[in-house]
Amino acid sequence: AAGVSAAIEAARQGKSVILLEKLGFAGGSSALCEGYLWACGSKLNETTGKGYTAEQMKEYLRESSRGNANHALNDNLVDMSAEMMDFMLDEGVAFLTDQTTSSGGDAQDLDVFIAEGAGNGLFTSLLGIAEKYGVTPRYESPAVGLIVEDGAVKGVTVEDKDGQYNIYAGTTVLCTGGFLKNEKLMNQYMPE
Q1: Which of 5, 66, 107, 154 sits a CA distance of 20 to 30 A from 25?
Q2: pLDDT digits over 112-130, tens only?
Q3: How far is CA 146 from the centre of its chain?
Q4: Any idea what the Cα angle at residue 124 is, between residues 160 and 83, rounded to 5°?
C-alpha cells in the first residue's frame, strides 16, 4: 500500500511513474490484511458517525508511541486523513458503512472502517487508481541495487526475466514492506 500510494500521489502531481514489484502480483501484505483504515473528519466519518476526532487521534498516537514517534509527522498524518479518505471515496474505493471494527489495544473505543473485500479489495482499488493516473506496474521486476552518483540516488538496477537494466529517475521511492518480519525494527519500536 505504501508503494502504490506514493505512486498515485506522484502521478497526481504529473510525474511519470514506474511501479516495480518483485512478485508476479502486487499487494504483498497489504492485499492479505483485513482492509482496516481510519480517518478523522472524512465524509465516511460524517456518514457513519464513527471514528475519533482529530484531537482524540493525535492524543492516542502520542500516548501509544511511548515517546518513540515523531509527533509532527503523526499530527500531519491525522490532519491529512480526511483528505486522503475522501480522495479514495471519490475514486470509487468502497468501505462498509454498516460495520466497523474496534482498533483494539489502547484504543478499544476507536471504530475503524473496513474496506469492501478486505485488504485485497482495498489494494485492488488503489492499484486501479494508480493505473488510471498512468502508473505503469512492472511485475517480477525487483530493484536489485541503487544507482548512486556523487552521493545521491539516481535510480535503480532492475532484474527481470530478460536480465538486468537501469532505470534513472529524478526521485526514487523505496517501499519494501516487511516491517513486522524485521526483528531489529520490531524490538526497537514495538518491544512489547
Answers
A1: 154
A2: 999 999 999 999 999 999 9
A3: 22
A4: 115
